Amino acid sequence: MTDTWPYLHVHQSRTHEPTPYEYKLAATLEEVFTREGHELADVVRGLNARQVHTADGSPWTEETFRAEMNRLGA
After folding, report:
1. What is the reported pLDDT for 31?
2. What residues contact residue 9 under an 8 Å CB cut-off, 6+ apart?
3. Which of 2, 4, 35, 64 is the most exposed place for a label (fewest CB within 10 A)?
4. pTM of the prediction?
5. Per-residue pLDDT tens for 14-68?
6. Residue-wise burial string across 16-50, b where 16 or more C-beta atoms lie within 10 A, e elsewhere
7. Other CB atoms closer than 10 Å to residue 10's CB: what's the count?
8. pLDDT at 4
9. How distant is the alpha carbon of residue 72 from its chain centre?
């Protein structure tokens, strides 16, 4: 890390160590982006097809995905 401004610290927006749920979601999103695409509908369909659901166990919708990404700061 450099002492000059501006600098980027890899975890500068992290408020806590990722949970197992967050690690699984991140890994699955990488797979979905690689295989299904980047459109929101593709992401939601890919997560649900892999049965990686919301934190409360519900299937994803476009609205719940947007809300979760907002909550996570992504």
Report:
1. 97
2. 1
3. 4
4. 0.78
5. 677 889 999 999 999 999 999 999 999 999 999 999 999 999 999 999 999 999 9
6. eeeeeeeeebeebbeebeeebeeeeeebbebbeee
7. 7
8. 66
9. 7
Structure tokens at 60: 């994803």
- CA dihedral angle for residue 31, residue 47, residue 63, residue 57, rounded to 10 degrees: -130
Q: Are 32 and 46 in contact (CB under 8 A)?
A: yes
- Chain length of the chain: 74
Place of tokens 């806590």: 16
